[in-house]
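Issue: copy button drops trailing tokens. Both records pasted manually instead:
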Amino acid sequence: MGKIDDFVEKNAIKPSDCHYHTARSVMSRKGEMSGKIRVLAAKVDNIARVEYKCPECLHDGYLEQEWRRPFSIKCQKCGIKITVPKMKQQAKKEFKAANKK
């Protein structure tokens, strides 16, 4: 189990207890969907808990930081900025990438 899953189970977090919760794929600079990010921002403490796989160096990491919008993190290994893509923007990028090939 991941650290977010452990936090949810330990604190009995329900959807109504969250500011934000998402799990998304993240595109690399090469246009490949090689990364992932999961963010849980609980109302209790306004802290965003983030599990991610860097789309560039493929490092798996976990970190906690203050929740605010727009939300982004830096990979702890390579330092690249990883943002949580808006669903509409992500769909456009995926469509363009699929039509390039």
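Record 2 (pasted manually too):
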Amino acid sequence: MWCILFSNSDVMASIALGKRLLKKYGLWDNLLYYSTTAPKIKTNKNTLLISCKQKKLDYYLGSTYNKLDEVSLASKGWLHSKSKGDYFTIIPISKQEDEGEGCLFSNLGINKLIIDALKNIKIKEATSFQTKAITTVQRGVHTLLAAETGCGKTIAFLLPIIQNIINSERNEQLNAPKAVVLVPNRELAFQTTEFANILGAPFGIKVKTVTGGRTKYNMMNPQLNDVDIIVATPGALSKLSTVGIYKLNQVLYFVLDEADTLLDDGFIDRVEVLIKRMSQAQLILVSATLPRKLPDILAPYESRMEQVVSPNLHMPLLHVKQKFMRITKSDRPARLLQLTKFNKEPMIIFTNKHQNCNWLAMFLRENGISCANINGDMNYAIRIEQWNKFIRGETNILSATDVGSRGLNTIQVKHILNYDFPIYAADYLHRIGRVGRLGSPHDSKITNFICSEPEVNLVQQIELAIRRNVPLTNVDGNITKIVHNNILRKIRQGP
């Protein structure tokens, strides 16, 4: 028998050569995927939080990683073809509590009739976030309210505004509101108006909705109304106030609801006009994401603006079951039918483009499954009709783009399906916020189809945030517009 001795340098050279060959033939990443080592983690095996197909990657609540160690993710190898069929599930735990305790509305100086109206819609006390928000707005300071979707931000700004309006002198001038609530879409405008009417009805508070669609008609045939609160979209209010139909010089409270959307590149010009026209008003920004930097038009307010921020802001939902499934695009239609064929629960299916939204609704209908659909490319009247059909329960399934993810109250929804998984963290947080809201069913769930590289990248960010117990990073509601506009600019400039 021959015995051959190798030096350390020979062994290292052989290993390096083998590694180069594996990389050359595309096998190195597959080897890494299948030989993933268990994470270096201090484990507390009491509450399973992330359940993985590869059980060695399971994660338990309260477990911690060493700061300098790489965290082994279930989704680590999902860029590779061998990962098809892999999955992991977030097991729901009790709802994340905000710091501190809630408070009775009566202790906040809220009128008894408003409290009774809240009780009629099963809202009995303010959460800790709402308590801080209400008291801050009541002090009359410019305010930024930032909290995760579904935690009652609308109550937080409407209550003190209505309370202050009923305590102030009546405005005798027509079409001169005391408060303006600006929202990015018509669905949210009508929803906010409805809620404001519920709270203000006992006092005769007049609330008017101002949205696009009939702007030219309204300019030619102006109506004069006794109005206390206007809920409006930017374009319509900008035009109607420009021609003097609505007088904004007496506005005391100016709210930008879904501020991250209103301050992005799609609305900023019209919003800037309105901010200048209501410079005397108390400015209230309301958002589910906290902007890293306020735009220049808000520079005069920034130093005087107080922030009320939820401790759960930008955190992935842990009180709702989420399943992340690594599949191919060709697998999605069959998987979709499996989830919807016998579905009897209110469900929203999100896609990234209006073409996909329309196709998905048509595909389900062709397979005998009732489905409504809404997207920003639809005629407004049809969009409202489709939305109301879903809200009234005439169909259990709604196909939607992100127009259905911002601010709309969907407490009846029990299942979210991201057929197209978003590629931006802000869109992800808004979508999943359609379930797990105040008053929502406790057995809600979210299903995510993961197919492409950008989708995998976001999933890895989400999984890492959960394992590290930290907020998602780079949550900027304006990033979509910025990237889109940069691409268009380069196309126009040419090579």
